[in-house]
Amino acid sequence: MDIKVLSLPAEKMKQKTRDESQLGFGKLFTDRMLMIEWKTGQGWCDARIEPYAPFVLDPACTVFHYAQEIFEGLKAYKWPDGRVVLFRPEMNARRFNQSADRLCMPDISEELFVDGIKQLVALERDWIPTASGTSLYIRPTMIAVEPVLGVHPSNHYYFYVILSPVGAYYAAGFNPVNILVEDHYVRAVPGGTGEAKTGGNYASSLKAGLEAKKKGYDQVLWLDGRERRYIEEVGAMNMFFAYGKKIVTAPLNGSILSGVTRDSVLKLAPTLGYEVEECPIEINALMADMRAGKVTEAFGSGTAAVITPVGKLCYKDEVLQLTGGKVGEITQKLYDTLTGIQTGKLEDHFGWVKFVE
Ligand code: COI
Predict the structure, then answer these.
(1) Whole-angstrom Cα distance, residue 204 to residue 187?
(2) Which of 53, 166, 212, 315 could form a disulfide with 137 if both were Cys (CB 3.0 to 4.6 A apart)?
């Protein structure tokens, strides 16, 4: 499909930030966005790259009432030689379509998803920050825009992609975050939408997140929705626990997100001499292992969060500290290797990076 590039008037071009240490996460957006529409009977149509601007939407649109919405997150990096790469974009395209299927939204071809993003990122390449720990965050999104109050899948969708130059997701940067294991609220149940990347999962996590913040924690770690015993994920990250040289993570059981960074860690770690295992992690057993000093490190993985070390874990008022509040050796090694591949400093033996031009 041809993607039209609409002109960007000089007065609509924004000032590019100069101080990359102040970027934060998702607060600043580039000059252009990709927009493709889907209509019943017509399919994907009217693909265009246009100036970034607010939408005018009917207040009755399905997305506002019944939350028919999905999104993705991936990143672009500018290498020291000026080349621009995306990290495993086809994985995001596949997951986007899995989310679309769960939310009864139309499938988009992997080719259109990836090529559209490549064209947009190529046009916006001057926005890609290059300081250590920075990147261009890419947010593909699909929303239902038919103005009708009946509860049924929409007949009209917007697929759009916006870009945001970002630094670290957590304000503390690459430093340990403290996590509260949530034993009251649940994020997902078997058969629900936990595996889909849909806004509702994040909306329903806000209350637990706020309550955890009040207690001094950065994030909540969700337990399974049936027994509240098995570790699932932190909303913005999958979780890993190290037992010496063995790293364990919860299996993809249908109610946690199938993280691209999670998959990358599972493939990368064995090449660095670590054993990996996907297995159910029971919270009482984990706490006992932490008390006994068997759990040597914990970290989260996510596109926004990259590899984030965990400092304290609190469950039912018991607080246990890992690695003395420092970044553990395995966490550091995985962070350095993954970001090294993404930024072109280390060779990519996996075929993960995709050049934009
Ligand atoms: C991502 O890591 O890309 C996400 O979508 C998580 C979000 C909470 C920022």
Answers:
(1) 7
(2) 166
Task: Tell me the DSSP string of 297-335.
Answer: EEEEEETTTEEEEEEEEEETTEEEE-GGGSPPHHHHHHH
Q: What is the pLDDT of residue 111?
A: 97
Percentage of the chain modeled with pLDDT above 70: 100
Atom 9 (ligand 1): residue with closest C-alpha? 304
Confidence of residue 299 (pLDDT cuts 50, 70, 90): very high
Q: Output the CA 248–ligand 1 centroid distance in Å.
A: 22
- Residue ranges per domain, the chain? 4-166, 177-343
Ligand 1 and 89: CB distance under 6 A: no
Tokens of 268: 């990368």
Residue 351 has pLDDT above 80, yes or no: yes
3-state secondary structure of 213: helix
Q: Which residues are CB-neighbours of 342 under 8 A, at least 6 positions away? A: 75, 77, 85, 87, 135, 353
Q: Could you identify the atom of ligand 1 that is nearest to the CA of residue 235?
A: 8
Q: In a mutational test of the pocket of ligand 1, which residue from 169, 220, 222, 265 has the highest number of ligand atoms less than 8 Å from its CB?
A: 169
Question: Are 153 and 68 within 8 A, CB to CB?
Answer: yes
Q: Enter the CATH code of domain 4-166.
A: 3.30.470.10
305 token code pair: 């969060």
Average pLDDT, whole number, for the chain? 96
The number of helix segments (H) and strand segments (E) in the chain equals: 8, 18
Q: Measure the CA–CA gap between 98 and 254, rounded to whole angstroms.
A: 12
State in Å: Cα 292 to ligand 1 middle: 33
Phi-psi region of 217 (alpha: psi -120 to 50; beta: other; left: phi over 0): beta
| Closest approach atom of ligand 1 to CA 303 | 2
Q: In this structure, which CATH number among 3.20.20.140, 3.20.10.10, 2.40.30.10, 3.30.1330.60 belongs to the domain 177-343?
A: 3.20.10.10
